[in-house]
Design a protein that fits this description.
Layout: H1 7-42, H2 46-59, H3 64-75, H4 83-94, H5 99-115, H6 119-138, H7 143-152
Helix pairs in contact: 1-2, 2-3, 3-4, 3-5, 4-5, 5-6, 5-7, 6-7
Length: about 150
């Protein structure tokens, strides 16, 4: 029986091949969803983009680009604006030194400070905005410098 492969070894090879093909299909599917989402995002079709980014995040919860893009989509969808903080915060848990997420969290809290009529709430929002903008600047965000000047005028 030279050259014969035991049945268990053959079965194991088939199983490993099936697993490899399944993983490859999932990665390809996630890439496709990301590409479609990015196309909608580029066209500023944030509602459509967010649906596809959500699919990406279902398969890869640590995808920082998808989290940032979901946060940006949420900022631009009035019914979903509150979730923007959650998405950017999740991105920062994965990449704490991410200038983009820090910048947008600073902008969100700065906008809340501008809108707030309550002096105490305004002060809290300004403090949060200042913290995130300072971090964004220290991690290389040029946009955060201009935002910080705007924050100082509130």
């Amino acid at each position: 029986m030279a050259g014969c492969v035991p049945t268990n070894t053959l079965t194991m090879k088939k199983l490993l091949l099936l697993i490899a093909l399944s993983v490859s299909a999932l990665v390809s599917h996630a890439q496709t969803n990301m590409e479609v989402a990015d196309n909608y995002f580029a066209k500023k079709s944030y509602a459509n983009a967010s649906g596809y980014y959500n699919r990406v995040l279902t398969e890869d919860t640590a995808n920082v680009k998808a989290l940032r893009r979901m946060g940006f989509c949420a900022m631009n969808l009035p019914e979903d604006e509150i979730n923007a903080v959650e998405y950017f915060s999740r991105a920062l848990k994965i990449q704490p030194k991410d200038p983009v997420s820090n910048y947008y969290l600073g902008v969100i809290f700065m906008d809340k400070a501008k809108q707030s009529k309550d002096v105490s709430a305004k002060s809290d929002y300004k403090a949060k905005a200042a913290l995130f903008l300072k971090r964004a600047i220290s991690y290389g965000s040029e946009d955060a410098k201009a935002a910080q000047l705007d924050l100082n005028s509130i």
